[in-house]
Every structure is written in C-alpha cells, then in structure tokens.
Design brief:
mainly alpha; 10 helices; about 160 residues; about 0% strand
Length: about 160
C-alpha cells in the first residue's frame, strides 16, 4: 500500500510542476518525484508560495499517520474549513502549505527511519525522554518543534539513542 501512495505522490508532484505558473519559475526536469522535492529547497519554496492544491494534500494526508482531526489542529483551521478546501478544490494559503510540507517531510523521514507507518505513529504518540518527555506529535505545531523531531529521527537512524 505504501508503494501505491508513493506512486500517487510522484504523479501529483510531476503534474504540479508541469503547471504553467511553477514551470515559468523552475525547470520541470529538476523535480521528477516526491523524494526529489525534499532535496530541492527552491522547489519547496515555489510550491509553498504557489499554494498546495487539495489534490496533493489529499495524497500527503493518506500517506501520513495523521487523522483529519490531527491535520486540522496542525494547520490551525477547523474541520469544516478543511472540508471546504476539499469541496472547492482550492489551494491552501502559503502558511498552511508550509505546514503541510513540514509534516510531509517529518512523515517521510519517520517512515524511512522506522520502515513502517504504524511503528512511526506509535513513536509519535509516545512520550520521548530526549525531548523532555513530550510526545513528538505535540512538537509538530511549529517549525522549531518539527526540527527537534527531524533531529531525533536522524539520531535514531544513526543509532544514537540518548
């Protein structure tokens, strides 16, 4: 199932970067997959400024361990507003788009680290000693917390357990 989600993510990203507004700012050949996106900060900036379309958010949401309620809290919008984005297929505002990308980056790193979305979700919901006995999920509300979570996942990747 994860492979299918990755293929959907790849298709969404390629399709998005073929759109005229992004293509005029950025060569398409540079972003050919979802993984490519995280290796190219300029592409991320352009995507955030353009606004993430609901279609890409839907695939990111499906590939993440987060519920619709979690996403609503992370994006600091009501469930009703989130559903309105879906109904109107409008693009998210840059601030919301940035948060979507941040959470997508954490999700990708977490799944790469644990090899399984369920193990990653369990880790997110378990108080972490090295993070002051806070659940990593609680730290994802701002960019500093996101960086702490990414750093901890990197340490786990390298076998450095504090």
């Amino acid at each position: 199932m994860q492979d299918q989600l990755e293929k959907r993510l790849d298709r969404e990203i390629v399709s998005l970067f073929k759109r005229a507004t992004i293509r005029n700012h950025f060569p398409i050949s540079k972003v050919n997959s979802y993984s490519d996106l995280f290796n190219n900060k300029r592409a991320i900036i352009l995507l955030i400024n353009e606004g993430i379309p609901y279609s890409l958010f839907q695939v990111i949401k499906d590939a993440s361990p987060f519920s619709e309620n979690d996403w609503s809290a992370l994006l600091k919008i009501s469930l009703k507003s989130l559903q309105r984005y879906k109904q109107t297929e409008q693009q998210f505002k840059p601030s919301q788009s940035e948060k979507i990308i941040e959470v997508a980056e954490v999700t990708k790193k977490g799944i790469d680290t644990f090899g399984d979305i369920h193990k990653f979700k369990l880790w997110l919901e378990t108080p972490n000693f090295s993070m002051g006995n806070v659940k990593p999920m609680e730290l994802l509300t701002d960019s500093y917390g996101k960086e702490m979570v990414i750093s901890e996942l990197t340490r786990i990747d390298h076998g450095i357990l504090v």
